[in-house]
């Protein structure tokens, strides 16, 4: 029943997303939502390594930048077709993630986080200083938009919106299957306890590396899609602050769930948009709101809903058991 309800919930969200362009006020709203979809894909990847496996990766924005710059460099400097460069964006991020994961995943806890923070800063410095490769602080301009597929073109805000939505749907579908699989359960076992996971016969290093590679694979593809959407890249996108934005999406939506990061990535950008009238002071307002949310809703929107639903079902089951016990006692008394 829970799985059917979950499917209906996802279908309802998909229906709302499909209808949204027809009720949006203007193309700016579509652009904001398209960016939210792209960030949701990247946040799904971060949630896999952080929420499901328990490893806090602070270099996630750097890997998203690697995917974006892969598309930018290949298309602008070498004339590679966009879709080939886009496919390579996830592959390049995954390969670099594999090399870095072999080193950093030997560390645990805050040591791992500090190491990845340094990795993210190194990625930023490489992008900023490597003028001959990444164009340095000037950035990469003139990235081509995703070319059309058949009769579908992606040269308008609405078409780009649906393209990002399609990739998000595929990303969510794959992530749900992954989390529900034996591999996903091994990730959860590692998050709960390294010792318990080893006792169950799980290879810790191999499991952590697989989770890390899949995580940055999502980030790379999100970066490639970002490059085709924005069509301009600068070193700033590798800042660790963008990783913290994605962490905020997870915390608000519900870390360790699939729906939570998606909801967070869709909700937070709109809140910041509506606080734009405060200009430089909007984060002064948004910061305390986030703190209050973490105090009173620490499990996020989805996590809180799940806990309340679990308590309600447990209370109903307990009431049903009490009722059955009372009926049994009465029948026994009648027979006596």
Keywords for this entry:
14 helices, membrane, transmembrane, ABC_transp_permease, transmembrane helix, two-stranded antiparallel sheet, 2 strands, 2 domains, ABC transporter involved in vitamin B12 uptake, BtuC, LivM-like, 336 residues, mainly alpha, globular
Protein model, in words:
With 336 residues, this protein is mainly alpha-helical. It is 78% helix and 1% strand. The chain has two domains: 272 residues, Orthogonal Bundle (ABC transporter involved in vitamin B12 uptake, BtuC); 32 residues. It has 14 helices and two strands. The chain is globular and about 90 Å long.
The N- to C-terminal Cα distance equals 40 Å
Inertia-based shape: globular
Kindly identify the CATH topology of the largest domain. Answer: ABC transporter involved in vitamin B12 uptake, BtuC
Low-confidence stretches: 1-5
Question: Percent range for helical residues?
Answer: over 70%
Q: Work out the strand percent.
A: under 5%
Mean pLDDT over the residues:
88
CATH class category name of the largest domain = Mainly Alpha
Oligomer: single chain
The run of helices and strands is HHHHHHEHHHHEHHHH
Give the tally of structural domains.
2
**Main β-sheet, spatial strand arrangement:** 1-2
The CATH architecture designation of the largest domain is Orthogonal Bundle
Estimated structural class: mainly alpha
Outline the biggest β-sheet: 2 strands, antiparallel
Radius of gyration: 23 Å
Count of DSSP-assigned helices: 14
Protein name: Branched-chain amino acid ABC transporter permease
Keywords: Cell membrane, Membrane, Transmembrane, Transmembrane helix
InterPro entries: ABC_transp_permease (IPR001851), LivM-like (IPR043428)
Subcellular location: Cell membrane
């Amino acid at each position: 029943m829970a799985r059917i309800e979950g499917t209906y919930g996802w279908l309802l969200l998909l229906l709302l997303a499909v209808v949204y362009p027809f009720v949006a006020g203007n193309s700016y709203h579509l652009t904001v939502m398209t960016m939210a979809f792209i960030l949701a894909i990247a946040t799904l990847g971060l949630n896999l390594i952080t929420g499901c496996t328990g490893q806090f990766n602070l270099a996630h924005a750097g890997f998203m930048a690697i995917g974006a710059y892969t598309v930018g460099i290949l298309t602008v400097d070498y004339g590679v077709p966009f879709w080939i460069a886009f496919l390579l964006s996830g592959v390049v991020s995954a390969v670099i993630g594999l090399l870095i994961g072999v080193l950093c995943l030997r560390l645990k806890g805050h040591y791992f986080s500090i190491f990845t923070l340094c990795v993210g800063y190194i990625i930023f410095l490489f992008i900023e200083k490597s003028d001959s490769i990444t164009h340095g602080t000037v950035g990469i301009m003139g990235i081509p938009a995703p070319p059309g597929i058949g009769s579908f073109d992606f040269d308008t805000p609405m078409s780009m919106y649906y393209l990002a939505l399609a990739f998000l749907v595929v990303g969510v579908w794959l992530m749900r299957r992954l989390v529900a699989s034996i591999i996903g359960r091994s990730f959860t076992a590692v998050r709960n306890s390294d010792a318990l996971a080893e006792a169950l016969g799980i290879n810790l290093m191999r499991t952590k590396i697989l989770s890390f590679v899949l995580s940055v694979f999502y980030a790379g593809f999100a970066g490639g899609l970002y490059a085709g959407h924005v069509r301009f890249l600068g070193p700033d996108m590798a800042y660790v602050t963008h990783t913290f934005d994605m962490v905020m999406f997870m915390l608000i939506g519900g870390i360790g769930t699939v729906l939570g990061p998606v909801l967070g990535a869709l909700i937070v950008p709109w809140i910041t948009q509506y606080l734009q009238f405060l200009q430089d002071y909007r984060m002064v307002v948004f910061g305390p709101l986030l703190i209050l949310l973490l105090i009173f809703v620490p499990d996020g929107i989805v996590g809180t809903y799940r806990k309340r639903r679990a308590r309600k079902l447990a209370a109903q089951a307990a009431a049903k058991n009490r009722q059955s016990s009372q009926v049994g006692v009465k029948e026994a008394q009648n027979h006596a």
